[in-house]
Design goal:
35% helix; six-stranded antiparallel barrel; Rossmann fold; elongated; Elongation Factor Tu (Ef-tu), domain 3; 2 domains; 10 helices; alpha/beta
Length: 319
Amino acid sequence: MQIVRDLQELPDLARGSAVTIGNFDGVHLAHRRLLQRVAASAHAGRVTSVAVTFHPHPIRVLTPHRAPQTLTSMDQKIKLIAELGIDALVVLQFTRELAHLSPEEFVRRILVERLRARMVWVGSNFRFGYRQAGDVETLSRLGRKESFDVDIVSTVRIRGQLVSSTRIRQLLAAGRVYMAARLLGRPFSNSGCIVAGLGVGRRHTVPTLNLESAEEQLPAPGIYVTCTRLAGVTHFSVTNVGHKPTFGEHPMTVETHLLDFEGSVREEEMEVEYLHRLRDEIRFQNAALLKLQIQEDIRRARKFFRLVDNFHIEKSALR
């Protein structure tokens, strides 16, 4: 997949393109359905499949105090979209100048003149243009005028839950990582650089790897069963998201203990996938009591992984 950060660098689109537009925060199941349809329609029509997204998130520019924490970094977003067969991802720098384009100007300048759109796929709640004046009816009207087709992908629900970035943030804020994973189509994760901690875990409880703080969404404070990926290798782990209250109040941290791991970690980055919430973060009277609880958390995490493994074996035996 080609990454285009300047419209002047677009590949040759003489045969036209199939386009979708959105923030794609989380690249959840509804996004995946949309992107897969764009890729399939482009292949069938022998045109280029293009996804258009924005950086930073438009709300960070227009109303920064209301800006949500993102579910995925730009690097994660690029990786996830590339897996869906899109030919080119256009990352538009979101500026106030871009925000002030009317729906008609956005369609003419970007979709028609630059992308040579033949087909445009959007969700049913799609809005665009200055003050979000344009909707799917506006886009359809402009499509008829500019000779491109508009296809609307309906909303997606999983067990009655609307699949949306907003709903996933709500679930994560409540610690409901399993349900968030169902809407994402994969476990929610945080990734970034490994940074030095205060050494509290190594001295008093268990050694941990510390994730650099970032602007991405975190699940609610608590203890989670996780998988931690280092250089493409996945390790079973237990992760604390919180403030280390037993040792005084600290900024929010993500600390991961790798199960059955010996030696030193040389990698500079890691990704933590949240599978199951074990409990709230608790303030203990001393480090010894905390260490006893952590041992219990580790025991329960091992049990979780055994049950998952047995379940997979049983499923395969039924095939």
